[in-house]
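Subject: mismatched residue count in predicted assembly?

I count 691 residues in my input, but I want to confirm that the predicted structure covers every chain. Input:
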Amino acid sequence: MKKKLQHVLLACSLLLATVCIGQAASYDYPISDPIEATIIGTPKEAMAILPKKIRVKEYLTFDVFPDREVPEVFWYNEKLRYAVAYQKEKAPVIFMIAGTGAGYDSAKMKMMQKAFFQAGFHVVAISSPTHPNFIVAASSSGMPGDIRSDSEDLYNVMEKMFERSKKKKLIGDFYLTGYSLGGTQAAFVAKLDEERKVFDFKKVLMINPALNIYDSAVKLDKMLVDNIPGGMDHFDDFYTKLMANIMESYVHGDFIDLSHDFFYSTYDAILTSQAEGKAVIGFSFRMSLANLLFTSDVMTHSGYIVPKNLELDSTDSLTDYNKVAFRGDGFSEYVENILYPPFKANEPGLSLREFVDRSSLRVIEDYLKKSNKIGLVTNVDDIILADGDVDYFKQVFGSRAKIYPRGGHCGNMAYKDNVAYMTDFFKIK
Amino acid sequence: MKIQKMNSMKNVLVLGLLLTFLSGCGAKQPAEQEAGMGIIPPTKPVSEFVQSDIVYPIDAYDPWEGFNRNMYVFNFYFDKYLFLPVVGGYAWIMPDYCEDRISGIFKNFGEIRNFMNNLLQLKFKATAVTTGRFLVNSTVGLLGMYDPASHWGMARYKEDFGQTLGHYGVGAGPYLVLPIMGPSTLRDTTGLAVDAVVRSEVLDWALDDVDNKSNVRTAIDVMAAIDARHRVGFRYYQSGSPFEYDVVRMLFLEKRKMDIAK
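Triage response: the counts match. Full output below for your records.
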């Protein structure tokens, strides 16, 4: 009898052990280094299986502000571009917000669009409010970065997209998601929706969000500055070398594929050091920031790089502006010189720190705590987070936080487990 | 034949006119504009923050920038209203499988250009492999519809006359955005013209017995253009970046440098 009990106990403990081990070891995303994961993403063989082509309509003529006089130099960004993957029968809709500087057609957006489409949703892909097209066509202030204004712009855009849809009969419930900065914005948009109630989002998923966008952006700024051999004075040497590396691995056919993911996608497998990897991430971020800085400067007539009373023509040379925009301090420079001053002018007592903390998720902590419809996915080693941020997420979201042991910043988004989690989140009621 | 010669004469004339026109076509530079009457200087003026004595990676020899930026805009509209709708129609009608076969045929025909330019650069191994590829794919591969040569380890060595010129030390010359074809340089445009003449002669020879030759040739050229555009994912202004022109220019010039060096 005793022996039998022992056997049973042993069997039980073994079973328990396998369950535990099973949980700990079941996540097989293959890249353990967060910098590499961020750059390389998910190796092909580990990706979720998604359709090669899906039914997508691109909209190129959405006039968000019909009365807006768009500066001549931005003529091509006058209309907001977005893409909708649509089902032929009635289905729920997922709105997706892209990450910093990314367009609706970035590789990550396309991947997510395919996954959600395959799972039976209509999927609307929206560029980040920090993307030049959004800044020119849809930002009410022309200077993104204050998350509440950005969320209002996003809400406004979604509302008008819905209005211009010709197939309203086929539209079911609404859902919302976003990655990186888009993930943070999704939370604020959801909060706004509680007041405006146009969509009544049933579920909201934040993927690798920043806790405080300013702090995350400054971290990325530093990655470039701190990791260029010899410092920023040797930026041009670094740049030349980077170009050479990129071109060497460049095999994308006959012409230049100028997507936002270009600098990542061509750079895999030739990382020589951690520092170089960090510099590449910082560099790619800086590319987006140069776009943001220049575009906002012109849109707001701030007179920071471009003289405030100079009207640029569609064919004027912009090369020198690129040099100036590229070589500053990045996001903090943008905030201090373009975004913050108008707010400060309205509220003279407002410190810079107070201002940027308004764009932190902590501001809506109570809302996030009690809103069961909001979920969060992130990684323990996400490079845009600071120490303690993951614990904060666990504490606020509890079981609604899905935290993976690795993946860097958005590196594991296309991994099969992540895609399954992401689609199940919306599918399972 | 005579008409063809006339045509090439005409092309040369057009090119000459174009170049004359180009020479007066610089773009307005930020530093000049800053110095304009009544302009309020910005916080970080170009005249102060851009050093004239260093070469930035984004810099390029682009004396015809004004013309080029105009042509860049033109290409956007050409794509939008003519080229891409036609390409879209083609993609809609054709099953993907057939598209790939058609691409294969044109790629295979391009081996003649690769052969000539590998030979001119005295790259004998590449010339031999290219010859092998052409023979295998033209026969077993059914005129290039299939690519058994690659499976048998015969790689594609892409070379054009622009690269040949570069190989012998001819500099890129001014950057040039061509109508329809897009980014190029003066050297590469010359190369393009030479390759086109050779291609035309070969095609002429190959179609010697065909009735309606000129119609057939036009059809082939149109198909080739559609196929080439179909294979390229690039869309003008799609990135939305205000610096797209500059980045494309940099990447293009850098890529050509690499192509020539290898």
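Chain B has a mean pLDDT of 87. Marking this ticket as 'not a bug'.
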